[in-house]
Design brief:
The structure is a single chain. This protein has about 375 residues and is mainly α. It has a domain at about 65-220 and about 230-320: ABC transporter involved in vitamin B12 uptake, BtuC, CATH 1.10.3470. The chain has 14 helices and four strands. The chain has helices spanning about 25-50, 55-85, 90-110, 120-150, 155-175, 180-190, 195-200, 235-255, 255-265, 270-275, 280-305, 310-325, 330-350, 360-370, and strands spanning about 1-5, 10-15, 210, 305-310. The strands form two sheets. Strands 1-2 form a two-stranded antiparallel sheet. A two-stranded antiparallel sheet has the order 3-4. It is globular, with a radius of gyration of 24 Å. The two termini are about 45 Å apart.
């Protein structure tokens, strides 16, 4: 559409105005109509149930935010790697799974149980957490060194396929790790009888879910009446540890020299090299941190839910990657926010719509948000990635 206006010299000038109904706005309108047509009535029914039983709604909010804290930790592993080398590390979910299996192995090896003293549990779990984070950090850095670094200058599809291949390899390692006979044979071969405890912790079926002993107190915290909602010491510990890790990561990236090197590398690798930054070392450090967070999340989830299974990384990885995209992949605070929102949506959908609809609801909301905000809730075009 063209309109006439008068320039400063008095000559008429045609000004072309963009039509209001652009392609983007058509997509937004159609997407909104489809969403309301599919989910409008169910959402009204959900709203009615929330108002009818507010205590149940509050309980699901608390449960969802608790789940969201450890999903946020996993999501940070994706966002760190993508922010610095723009690679979707599909193997990260399996690193998280290996953290759960490794921590369960150490719990069985040291004989920790619900009957252990509070002092033994405290020091034992802290030590196992440190060992687990070290193990998964080294594992993730090794994946980067041998599977991704040689393909850094290859076409972008090559490292993506490599990541998928590493993911399948680690799943099979998880199956092998859960084989009771493997640990019995290792005990006979090495003469270390304590290794049979790991086999006992893994159970008799190598592909069946593995059971964590109940090591965290499951009593209601004293400062919240159980008439309001259930919030146990176990949930509190998961939230506190998760938020502490999130805060420590944010402080490290924002206020340390290595964190500044990570942010500089995320902005421009070539310029960072010219400024004297060891880019390879910085990328390895990013994988180390991401792997440590994944291992910590694996142990926390195992202790919180009481189970671990070799394919747990696929589901958790999918949700965590969705959380990273939802909040703004490459943005630390955005990924944390995305994890909390995904956990909240999961809990509410499981309660009010049924667990079979949870993934559909989450991805429908993700699509709607990306239509309006393609960079995610806190992402910025060309902004800071790390």
């Amino acid at each position: 559409m063209a309109t006439r206006s008068v320039s400063q010299s008095g000559d008429p000038v045609e000004v072309h105005q963009r039509p209001w109904l652009t392609t983007r706005r058509v997509i937004i309108i159609v997407s909104t109509i489809v969403f309301l047509a599919l989910f409008g009535i169910p959402l009204l029914n959900v709203g009615y149930k929330m108002v009818e039983t507010p205590s149940l709604f509050l309980q699901q909010v608390v449960t969802g935010l608790t789940k969201g804290t450890y999903l946020a930790i996993i999501a940070l592993g994706y966002t760190l790697v993508y922010g610095i080398i723009e690679l979707i590390n599909f193997a990260h979910g399996e690193v998280y799974m290996m953290g759960a299996f490794f921590s369960l192995s150490l719990i069985g090896l040291f004989g920790l149980s619900g009957e252990s003293s509070a002092l033994a549990l405290t020091f034992g779990l802290v030590g196992i957490m440190i060992c687990t984070m070290t193990f998964t950090a080294v594992l993730n850095a090794s994946i980067e060194r041998f599977a991704y670094r040689p393909l850094r200058n290859a076409p972008r599809l090559a490292p993506l396929i490599s990541a998928i291949g590493v993911s399948f390899m680690l799943q099979n390692v998880g199956i092998l790790w859960g084989d009771h006979n493997l640990w019995d044979n290792l005990a006979d071969w090495t003469g270390i009888d304590r290794l049979t405890r790991i086999g006992d912790a893994m159970g008799s079926n190598m592909v069946a879910p593995k059971s964590f002993p109940s090591l965290l107190p499951n009593r209601q915290v004293p400062f919240i009446p159980d008439s309001w909602f259930t919030f146990t010491w176990k949930s509190l510990l998961v939230v506190v540890v998760s938020l502490s890790l999130l805060g420590a990561l944010y402080a490290f990236v924002r206020f340390t020299k290595l964190g500044k090197a990570m942010r500089a590398t995320a902005q421009d690798r070539d310029a960072s090299r010219l400024m004297g930054i060891n880019v390879d070392l910085t990328i390895s450090l990013t994988f180390l941190i991401g792997g440590a967070l994944g291992g910590a999340a694996g142990m926390l989830v195992g202790l919180y839910t009481g189970t671990a299974v070799f394919n747990m990384g696929f589901t958790a990885g999918l949700l965590a990657f969705t959380a990273a995209v939802l909040g703004g992949i490459g943005n630390i605070l955005g990924s944390a926010l995305g994890g909390l929102l995904i956990g909240l949506l999961l809990a509410l959908s499981d309660q009010y719509l049924g667990s079979r609809w949870s993934n559909a609801v989450i991805f429908a909301i993700l699509v709607l948000i990306l239509v309006f905000r393609p960079t995610g809730l806190l992402g910025e075009e060309g902004g800071q990635k790390a």
